[in-house]
Write a structure and sequence with these properties.
By secondary structure, the protein is α/β, with parallel strands linked by helices. It contains six helices and nine strands.
Length: 194
């Protein structure tokens, strides 16, 4: 093991930012980031994989030891995905302003159309009340699962899920943080805000 970061008790996006800085200082080798909550684990893993690192998670009691190997291509072949390099920023569970019932119909229609499209978006980012779409009771879970199967990454803002008390009701996608969301937005070539 080349380096170890103890990030237990550090709130997001701290573990991701510290891991990023440590990886930037390394040419190759292994970094172990230790966290003690699932959101931090998932965010660090997702970031490391986005950097083409090989990642292995070891659970020890309430702690997660994230082994990140830099200089070795990740096992997952990302070129096999059919998703494009576009991002949709979905900030509401309705589309447009005006009538809420119409807005609900429109967002369902949009997500259905995206799921049926041959050119699936690279990432859908759910923020504010948009996180309701990825949770239990959402009328668009089937469409979102279809998009995820095509390679679209689904990210839900953890702060927003906490605000609406929905973190335990997440059904599709993964919990993210603002730092990871900004990184994802910066990586895309086209951003559509809804």
């Amino acid at each position: 093991m080349d380096k170890q970061l103890d990030m237990r008790g550090v709130s997001c996006p701290g573990p991701v930012i510290t891991t990023k800085k440590a990886l930037e200082e390394m040419e190759a080798g292994e970094l172990v980031t230790i966290v003690n909550n699932e959101a931090a684990r998932d965010n660090v893993v997702r970031f490391a994989q986005s950097q083409n690192c090989l990642v292995r998670v070891e659970e020890q009691g309430c702690d997660y030891y994230i082994h990140i190997s830099k200089g070795i291509l990740a096992a997952e072949d990302k070129c096999c995905k059919t998703a494009s390099n576009s991002a949709y920023l979905i900030t509401s569970d309705k589309l447009g302003k005006g009538d809420d019932e119409l807005g609900s119909v429109l967002i369902r229609s949009l997500l259905y159309s995206l799921a049926e499209s041959e050119d699936a978006p690279g990432v859908l980012i759910f923020m504010n009340s948009g996180v309701k779409l990825v949770c239990e009771g959402s009328p668009v879970l089937a469409e979102l699962k279809a998009l995820e199967k095509k390679g679209t990454e689904l990210l839900a803002c953890g702060t927003c899920l906490d605000f609406f008390h929905l973190k335990e009701k997440l059904c599709v996608g993964s919990i993210s943080n603002m730092y990871a969301i900004v990184e994802k937005i910066n990586e895309t070539t086209k951003i559509i805000s809804i």
